[in-house]
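Schema walk-through. Below, the input block comes first and the output block second. Nothing else is stored per chain. Lengths vary across the set, and this one has 92 residues.
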Amino acid sequence: MPRLRIQVAHWPRALILTDTPRPDCRDCEGEGGFAYDYGDHNGEYAGTNWEPCGCWNETRCWVLLPLPRRPRWLRRRTAARDPWGYSNEPPF
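--- output ---
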């Protein structure tokens, strides 16, 4: 049985249907993969790698509905102003 979820993709902007990890997976316990730390040549911590589990394909997705872009005149270019005219600069 597929475990599907609706999400918003940012490029291209659309609603997509994606797969989720199997919650009763004995290998990853529903997390979808395994994180493990690794070190550099001195044995110091150098980062964390992610290895996906076989119960989940994180690249599997289907586009449901492309979302339109907002018109240019509706996009914000400057910081939002306080409608009451109060300043957010010190002193408050």
